[in-house]
C-alpha cells in the first residue's frame, strides 16, 4: 500500500497541491533537502502531463498520485487514465522541436525531458488502464521520527 | 503562491518582472502578457525572473513561444536569472543555448548582441 495516496480532479490548479504534498511526504521519508526541489519539479511535471492527457482525451477520472516510502527509497507514481498515453519513447529525445511549435504535445514532451533530466531512476509504462510514471529517490538511513 | 506580473519600459526595452510560481496553472497568464506586449509593438523584452519561486516546462514553453513571437518582428527576449534552481531547468532542457540569460536587469537592458 502507498504511504500516501492522492487523487485530484484533472485541473491545472490542483497540480500545485500535488507538488506540496509530495514534497512534504518526501521530506518526512528522509529525502535529502537538496533534492526536494527536484522532487517538487518532477512530480509537478508528471501531474501536469497527466492533467493535459486527461483534458485532451476527455477523461473525467481523477489523476492518481502514489507516494511510497520504503526502507531505502522514496517513490512517486503518477498515473493517468489514458491507455497507451504515457508509454512513449519521447522521454529520451524530447526537447525543443515540439515545444517551439507551442502545441500541447510539445509541452508534454518537454515535461518528460525535464523528468528524465532530473531523475536518475524513472520508468514510464503504459497499460490498459493508463500510463504510469514512476520515479524514485534514495532516502537517508533513518527516516524522520515523528 | 500565485503569479505576479508587472511591466515597465527602459529605453527601447520592456522589462517584465515575474514573481511567484510559473506552472501549468499560471503559465497562461504569462503567455497572455507576452502576447499582449508583442501585439502592442514591444519587440524587445527582458523577463526578470529573480522573484520566480518555481518554473516548470509549461513556463519554459511560454518563454519559447514569446521568443518566437518577438523574433518574427526581429526583436529579442532576454532573461534575468541568478537562481541556481531555475537555471538548472534551462540547462537540462538545453535552453541556455536558446535564451540570453543575464545576471541583472541593467545588464540585460544594455545588451546588444
Automatic annotation (TrEMBL), chain A:
Chain ranges of the Histidine kinase/HSP90-like ATPase domain: 8-137
UniProt KW keywords: ATP-binding, Kinase, Nucleotide-binding, Serine/threonine-protein kinase, Transferase
A GO term for molecular function: protein serine/threonine kinase activity
InterPro entries reported for this sequence: Anti-sigma-factor_SerPK (IPR050267), HATPase_C_sf (IPR036890), HATPase_dom (IPR003594)
PANTHER family listed in its UniProt record: ANTI-SIGMA-F FACTOR RSBW (PTHR35526:SF3), ANTI-SIGMA-F FACTOR RSBW-RELATED (PTHR35526)
Descriptive protein name: ATP-binding protein
Source species of the chain: Streptomyces piniterrae
Automatic annotation (TrEMBL), chain B:
Coiled coil location: none
Keyword Phosphoprotein: yes
Keyword field: Phosphoprotein
Domain STAS: 3-112
Xref: Pfam families: STAS
Highest taxon listed in the record's lineage: Bacteria
Molecular-function GO terms, alphabetical: anti-sigma factor antagonist activity
PROSITE patterns referenced in this protein's UniProt entry, alphabetically: STAS
UniProt entry tagged with the keyword Transferase: no
Record PANTHER family: ANTI-SIGMA FACTOR ANTAGONIST TM_1081-RELATED (PTHR33495:SF2), ANTI-SIGMA FACTOR ANTAGONIST TM_1081-RELATED-RELATED (PTHR33495)
Functional note: Positive regulator of sigma-B activity. Non-phosphorylated RsbV binds to RsbW, preventing its association with sigma-B. When phosphorylated, releases RsbW, which is then free to complex with and inactivate sigma-B.
Record NCBIfam families: ant_ant_sig
Family per similarity comment: Belongs to the anti-sigma-factor antagonist family.
Name the record gives this protein: Anti-sigma factor antagonist
Native organism: Streptomyces piniterrae
Amino acid at each position: 500500500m502507498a504511504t500516501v495516496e492522492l487523487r485530484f480532479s484533472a485541473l491545472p490548479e490542483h497540480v500545485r497541491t500535488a507538488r506540496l504534498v509530495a514534497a512534504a511526504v518526501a521530506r518526512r521519508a528522509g529525502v535529502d533537502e537538496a533534492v526536494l526541489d527536484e522532487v517538487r519539479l518532477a512530480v509537478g511535471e508528471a501531474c501536469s502531463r497527466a492533467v493535459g492527457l486527461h483534458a485532451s482525451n476527455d477523461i473525467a477520472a481523477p489523476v492518481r498520485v502514489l507516494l511510497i516510502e520504503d526502507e531505502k527509497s522514496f517513490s512517486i507514481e503518477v498515473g493517468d487514465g489514458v491507455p497507451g498515453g504515457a508509454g512513449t519513447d519521447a522521454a529520451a529525445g524530447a526537447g525543443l522541436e515540439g515545444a517551439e511549435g507551442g502545441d500541447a504535445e510539445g509541452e508534454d514532451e518537454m515535461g518528460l525531458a525535464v523528468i528524465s533530466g532530473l531523475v536518475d531512476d524513472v520508468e514510464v509504462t503504459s497499460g490498459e488502464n493508463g500510463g504510469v510514471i514512476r520515479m524514485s529517490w534514495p532516502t537517508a538511513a533513518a527516516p524522520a521520527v515523528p | 503562491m500565485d503569479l505576479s506580473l508587472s511591466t515597465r519600459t527602459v529605453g527601447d526595452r520592456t522589462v517584465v518582472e515575474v514573481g511567484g510560481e510559473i506552472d501549468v496553472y499560471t503559465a497562461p497568464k504569462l503567455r497572455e502578457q507576452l502576447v499582449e506586449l508583442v501585439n502592442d509593438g514591444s519587440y524587445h523584452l527582458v523577463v526578470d525572473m529573480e522573484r520566480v519561486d518555481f518554473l516548470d516546462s509549461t513556463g519554459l514553453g511560454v518563454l519559447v513561444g514569446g521568443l518566437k513571437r518577438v523574433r518574427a518582428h526581429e526583436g529579442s527576449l532576454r532573461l534575468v536569472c541568478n537562481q541556481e534552481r531555475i537555471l538548472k531547468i534551462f540547462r537540462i532542457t538545453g535552453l541556455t543555448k536558446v535564451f540570453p540569460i543575464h545576471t541583472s536587469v541593467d545588464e540585460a537592458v544594455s545588451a546588444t548582441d
